[in-house]
Write the structure tokens for this entry.
Amino acid sequence: MSKIKENGEKYMKNIIVLLLTSLLFLGCSSNGAQKQNIEPKLVVGNTLENLTLKDQFGKEHNIKADTYRLVFAFSKEPAHTCNNFFNAKDKDYLTKHHTQFIADVSAAPSVIRNLFILPGLKDFQYTVLIMDDEKVAAPFRVNMDPEKIAIVYIINKKIDKITVLKTEDELKKELEDDSMFSTLVPMLNQAIDTTSKMMK
């Protein structure tokens, strides 16, 4: 009798494992199909004018008028690299360099996000714009290497160029570029924004 019971339990376990495996593969294939249908956002020429995200304290932000660079971190390692770098700088470092930092935490399980990641971000003095919704983040992740930091250059809130990098030294070089172009574009962006507001 115990042998029958034991065989029955094994049979049930096998069925449960089979069902779970099937569901996992179904989920993966549907995610793959969804990804194929998502229009990528981070493409040269695309506008990011309507991008609105909350910071680590729940305050909503748009792209600032004078912003020239958006720094995207799509996973843990790039985010750590950015956080280590920005945390060692003055509080207004990002503002001085006409840059905004966007951390995509949507891939992390919600429990990890809510218990560890989001509370941890409140320790930083600089502003971290957060993508915590998979549907919002998905178009930004398309064709991007999640293990690299993406620097998105914008003119009039349209993507002009995208650079990818990995190290703090590379990040510093990009953000502290003091070329004439890097000096003029933030002023141009500010002027365009002011003019468009006056014309409305």
